[in-house]
Design brief:
Length: 255
């Protein structure tokens, strides 16, 4: 398949290894991965904070960049951005766009996927040849769980990883407290939610906490670092991209 990779803002600016790992993984599985160079923010942060008219240019650009008929799928290492493209873009186009934008949004929406759902639902792959000999726990992010409803797909992929010791995270479906601007506007509540999440992660004894969204991992990882817990955070794509011949070497976690 010819797959277009969407980097996301956080991937582009703070977590490029998650984006690179997505490309490496898809290429290893035999697909042609392309990167539309004029891609920008999907506009999620605007819509989430109540500015629905302002992201029209971003939504239009997304539809133009990824609307190429030769692109069979648009894949991103982010449940929240995939949720924005599949749900919020349609809302923005319906309220503030023209007929061409609505058509473009509908076309791109139909071929947009978060990484785990693309691997399982489209490629019918759970064993992607990954090797990661570490104790890992998985946090299901809110958008992937509640908006995209990826369910067990990330866990099915992780269970097939050679060498992994996958441990269940208690109260896994509870929000980590990030929620974008929620963490800024409701800092006290966000911190309390993060504390609960970190306590549950610590109870697993995991070396690594993984998820499908860099935003949640940024929030959780910051908290774990301040506690010097010894647990690292790592995007799901980075685990799935690791192999015996090209293993992922864990950096020293704060203790």
């Amino acid at each position: 398949m010819r797959i277009a990779l969407f980097a996301t803002c956080l991937g582009d600016t703070l977590f490029p290894e998650a984006v690179k790992s997505t490309a490496v993984l898809l290429a290893r599985l035999g697909h042609d991965v392309v990167f539309p160079p004029q891609q920008t923010c999907c506009g999620q942060m605007h819509v989430n904070t109540g500015y629905q008219r302002e992201p029209v240019p971003l939504v239009r650009n997304f539809a133009e960049q990824f609307g190429d008929p030769s692109i069979e799928a648009v894949v991103m290492p982010s449940g929240s951005c995939a949720g924005s493209v599949r749900h919020q873009h349609e809302l923005v186009a319906a309220r503030y766009g023209d007929a061409a934008l609505r058509a473009g949004v509908a076309d791109v929406k139909a071929k947009t996927y978060e990484l785990s759902e693309f691997l399982v639902d489209v490629l019918d792959a759970t064993d992607v040849g990954a090797y990661f000999p570490h104790r890992v726990t998985y946090h299901p992010t809110c958008h992937s769980l509640r908006m995209l409803r990826v369910g067990e797909k990330p866990l099915r992929l992780l269970r097939a990883v050679e060498g992994i010791d996958l441990v269940e995270l208690p109260e896994a479906d509870a929000c980590c407290g990030f929620g974008g601007t929620f963490a800024v506007k409701n800092a006290g509540t966000s911190s309390a939610m993060l504390r609960d999440k970190m306590d549950h992660i610590a109870g697993t004894g995991a070396e690594v906490c993984t998820a499908g969204d860099s935003s949640c991992l940024m929030h959780i990882g910051g908290g774990l670092s301040r506690l010097k817990s010894g647990t690292r955070t790592l995007h799901l794509a980075q685990i799935l991209a690791a192999t015996r011949t090209a293993p992922h070497v864990l950096t020293e976690a704060a203790r």
